[in-house]
Specification:
Layout: E1 7-10, H1 14-24, E2 28-31, H2 37-42, E3 50-53, E4 62-65, E5 68-72, H3 84-89, H4 91-97, H5 103-108, H6 111-117, H7 123-130, E6 134-139, E7 142-147, H8 148-151, E8 152-154, E9 157-158, E10 165-172, E11 178-186, E12 193-203, E13 208-216, E14 223-224, H9 226-232, H10 242-252, H11 263-287
Parallel strand pairs: 1-3, 2-3
Antiparallel strand pairs: 4-5, 5-10, 6-7, 6-10, 8-9, 11-12, 12-13, 13-14
Helix pairs in contact: 9-10, 10-11
């Protein structure tokens, strides 16, 4: 299929891009890799009247600013692999990006595009929620930071206002005594996930002192699991009762039936993924003592 007609505009600066998006309002969309937007346009699930090409804007790169890791919106997915900052501080992030699509998607897709698209099965929205990231957005009115837990409202729906554009994602740097893991399952490698679970842990060398958990597949956007986070605090690394945590979480969710999987299948899958993610993170923590 072909997309509905639209007008193409190439932004020459961030200010130019924001001016165009302000002018077009709901009818304008920024585009970089187009790995998600273009397929939706081809199926006419999205019909923007104006596309603003932002590929020339200087908003890419991964750097530490104070106690924050800042990832520019135009950072391509392939840039995460082998990045020493992500490898050192964010093992769950590094796990997650190995599940992102195929080589073409990794070369062309960007973190800003993935976050803005808000696919409920995508890895990077889940990573942002797991790590308490701030989504940095700009418009002609200025800049604001939106906590990831407040940014994703539903499937493909975000807190972005007309004229706003994601310019960066900022993750607070964790303690040195922290680790994590991320695991997902789809029908085939590179496919959209049926469900995924990510875990981060802080520990004292023998027990969990603090935990965070995110899940995709249990709702229309990535959700945290505060009851599991509380359950894990104080658990010994050598036996964190991962199976019990998985069962507890499965009992607390109400996933939907769809053409990919039934609610019962998803519930059982999420229980297993939770158990495996916790076990992997605790094993890594024991290896870092």
């Amino acid at each position: 299929m072909r997309p509905a007609s639209f007008e193409y505009h190439r932004a020459t600066s961030l200010e130019h891009a924001l001016e165009l998006l302000s002018q077009f309002g709901d009818d304008g969309r920024p585009i970089a890799g187009g790995q998600s937007l273009v397929p939706m346009m081809n199926f006419r699930l999205a019909r923007p009247g104006h596309l603003v090409d932002i590929n020339k804007l200087p908003i890419a790169g991964i750097e530490v600013l104070g106690k924050t890791l800042r990832i520019g919106a135009l950072t391509r997915h392939e840039a995460y692999f082998g990045n020493p900052l992500i490898a050192r501080h964010f093992p769950a992030f590094l796990d997650a990006v190995h599940y992102i699509g195929h080589p073409t998607i990794r070369r062309n897709g960007s973190i800003g595009g993935s976050i803005s698209h808000a696919d409920p099965t995508a890895e990077l929205p889940a990573v942002a929620v797991l790590h308490d990231a701030d989504i940095v957005v700009r418009s002609t009115a200025g800049e604001r930071r939106i906590p990831a837990t407040e940014f994703f409202l539903s499937a493909y729906v975000t807190a972005l206002e007309p004229g706003e554009m994601v310019v960066a994602v900022e993750l607070p740097l964790p303690l040195e005594t922290s680790t994590g893991s991320f695991i997902e399952l789809g029908e085939r490698s590179g496919d959209f996930a049926t469900a995924s679970v990510g875990i981060t842990l802080e520990h004292d060398g023998s027990a969990v002192t603090k935990a965070a958990m995110v899940c995709s597949g249990a709702d229309l956007f990535p959700i945290r699991a505060p009851e599991i986070e509380d359950f894990l605090a104080g658990q010994p690394l050598i036996d964190p009762k991962a199976k019990e945590a998985g069962q507890l979480f499965a009992e607390s969710i109400d996933p939907v039936d769809d053409h990919i999987a039934s609610a019962d299948y998803r519930r059982g899958l999420i229980a297993q993924l939770t158990q495996r993610a916790i076990t992997t993170a605790c094993t890594r923590a024991l290896g870092k003592k």
